[in-house]
Amino acid sequence: MTRARSAQLYSNAQKLIPGGVNSPARAWDSVGGDPLFLKKASGSRIWDVDDNELIDYVCSWGPMILGHAHPAVIDAAVEATRSGTSFGAPTELEVEMARRVVDAVPSIEAIRFVSSGTEATMSALRLARARTGRSKILKFNGGYHGHEDALLVEAGSGLANQGIASSAGVHPEYAASTLVAEFNDVDSVRLLLQANTGEVAAVIVEPIAGNMGVVTPEPGFLEELRELTREHGVLLIFDEVISGFRVSLGGAQAVYGVMPDITCLGKIVGGGFPVGAYGASAEIMSEVAPLGPMYQAGTLSGNPVAMAAGIATIDELSKPGVYEGLRATTDKLADGLIGVFDASGVQAAVNRVCGLLTVFFTGNPVFDMRTASATDREAFGAFFHGMVDNGVYLPPSQFEAWFVSTAHTDADIEQTLDAVKKSLPA
Ligand SMILES: *Cc1c(COP(=O)(O)O)cnc(C)c1O
Fold first, then answer.
1. Tens digits of residue pLDDT in 114-148
2. How far is the CA of 123 from the centre of ligand 1 (A)?
3. What is the percent of the chain where pLDDT is above 70?
4. 118 CB under 6 A from ligand 1?
5. Which one of 261, 267, 368, 376 is the catalytic residue?
6. Average pLDDT over the chain, rounded to whole?
7. Quick check: is 239 catalytic?
8. Structural domains for the chain
9. What are the pLDDT digits (tens) for 356-365?
10. Residue 146 C-alpha to ligand 1 middle, in angstroms?
11. What are residue 403's DSSP bridge partners?
12. Concatenated DSSP letters for 222-280?
């Protein structure tokens, strides 16, 4: 496997683009080495610029749930492109797309499309502040909601910790207005809401955490969060940028039967194009301009090519049996991984939901950021490189989800498990 062309491009890119990448997760900083530069993809497969073919479990970090270059999505996008790529005026496609999202996601009655997940969460916070007249936000340690200032904050240590920015350049007042609780620990939320009575506008949570690796909500956690936020007059925001259209057509809220006040979408909703969205009841969404006083806008929002791709994606996902198939593929992979690890005496926790899984190298269960951090990251790095050498492309970090698509076949799973056997950490 030569990677000469990737190495050359990486070297050129580093002179022109910070770190050679347009999003830091694409660099291989946490596992070491030079990232592969990709040139094409189809179904479950990607090809790098040196013509190496790999099975892909990044899937653009989620959007490619149907696999790459799905014919229905490509046809829809190409057809839309021929009619013009952006108008800055309303189109029928936006109405068609909004109808599908409102029909699919139980708590959404009205929706605004934006151009990224970051824009969706940023707007959802503004909406929550507009609605409640309060300014503080509560998020969870290890929860990622895009790069908006108020959300680039994680706990230092201990649940009373307030607002330590995890990026330079974050306005200290924004960071200070963000409270950080522990995922799956409703008492940590209760304490913070009690200590900040009347000041918290919203609790924002990934109902299935995907950015500390996959961590599922323990039974009752989301229900109690719902109850507690209601008691305190705090809006509950589900960031379903990963879980939306992945764990079911209605997202995690449909799976767990817990309804947030505001939902954020991204990734899959754009079918591989830059789209995000936030939605809520018609009443809450009436705060948004031009109906209400909360301003939010976007030149390319509701872009017709992206809407066409999103519509085609949702229509494919709406066909009978799609999620059953995706779940079966995920289970086959997760069970296969556990089998290989058990047979070789490797201690690993495999967390999974429909279409997502993470392998944590630890003998203990992983249920929040603290337990996710207590894993063997060096072992992951070695494993990652073994997998790439054996033709399987994984997210280059212990704290990311592997994304399974409907294009992954049983043969792909077998080939993946073979690669795992060859890549096990010592
Ligand atoms: C990816 C992600 C975002 C940010 O979306 P972008 O399109 O990258 O801005 C927000 N929330 C979650 C849960 C995500 O996984």
1. 999 999 999 999 999 999 999 999 999 999 999 98
2. 13
3. 97
4. yes
5. 267
6. 95
7. yes
8. 4-69+321-423 (3.90.1150.10), 71-317 (3.40.640.10)
9. 999 999 999 9
10. 5
11. 356
12. HHHHHHHHHHTTPEEEEE-TTTBTTTBTTHHHHHHT---SEEEE-GGGGTTSS-EEEEE
